[in-house]
Here is the input.
Amino acid sequence: MFDLLLTVLDEGRLRDSRGRLTDFRSTVIVMTTNLGVRHGASLGFGETAGGDNVVHDIRQFFRPEFFNRIDRVVPFAPLSRTAIEAIAVQELEAIAQREGLVRRGVRLKFAPEVIAFVADRGFSPKYGARPLQRAVEQHVVAAVARTMFGPVADGACLDVLLLDGAVVAKTAGG
Here is the structure.
């Protein structure tokens, strides 16, 4: 694979096994790696920490002729609690935009405790925010779905709360 990428990075084109030519001369290639990640630190956008160590590890892994064709290495810093909660808010807002809820005019109002709960359950030092979507589905979507099976009027507002360590959805005021 590295030899194929080396050809693309060097010549700007690639020929497949059938002789077809693909032109990469006006292409931006973004490559990602976990090289340089130490001891399960999760990465994200922000101030970089230990960027020199990351570049050193990448330089050690790739052959010099490959590394020298890379224009730029951009290291990422660990995700902050604020960033994790912002991602959780985005995931929760996406639930409110689901077709079934929008069609019925049902709105969702998330308590701050729910955001913190989802951020805690959906963040892993090893995997970063990747498990967040699963936590949202398991805890929040399931609670909203259980409530929607009951009598919920079109145009209702559901309060999504944390009660006794579990996420529940209730009709506002109910």
